[in-house]
Amino acid sequence: MEEFKAFAMKGNVVDLAVAVVIGAAFGKIISSLVDNIITPTIGLLLGGIDFSGYAYQVGDSTITYGVFVQSVIDFVIIALVIFLTIKGIRALELKEEAKPEKEKTVEPTEEVKLLREIRDSLKT
Fold first, then answer.
1. Does 76 share its domain with 32?
2. pTM over 0.85, yes/no
3. In the Cβ-directed half-sphere of 39, how many Cα atoms lie within 13 Å?
4. Buried b (16+ CB within 10 A) or exposed e, 26-49
5. Are 48 and 63 contacting, i.e. CB atoms less than 8 angstroms apart?
6. Same-domain check for residues 61 and 112
7. Ramachandran area for residue 47 (φ above 0: left; ψ -120 to 50: alpha; else beta)
8. Non-local CB neighbours of 53 within 8 Å, separated by 6+ positions
9. pLDDT in tens, 21-44
10. Are residues 62 and 114 in the same domain?
11. Residue 18 sits in which domain range?
12. CA-CA distances (angstroms) from residue 106 to 99, 103, 109, 117?
């Protein structure tokens, strides 16, 4: 039991668990954005085309290739949205890093003060 507790409480395991939960939540946000905003907008622009109903009948079997085509289109849209989101986040991070920080004046150590005093006295 102690060994399991040591494993479960390691920083990497906890970080991984947090990443999985946040990733799942982020996935829901992206899916909602694509399903409820982007895909309907593209559908309006293209005249309401929905590939998911396309199928091919072979004897008693039905090959629903339209569902596959729609899944590929959804994947491309989701990948594009994630790419643009991450690119935007990185741009904001770079903008934050580019801001100049106020220069902090560091008080010199006693040793440096003494050396400066010696230098100044030698100049005269």
1. no
2. no
3. 20
4. eeeebeebbeeebbeeeeeeeeee
5. no
6. yes
7. left
8. 66
9. 998 998 888 888 888 888 788 878
10. yes
11. 1-49
12. 20, 9, 9, 18
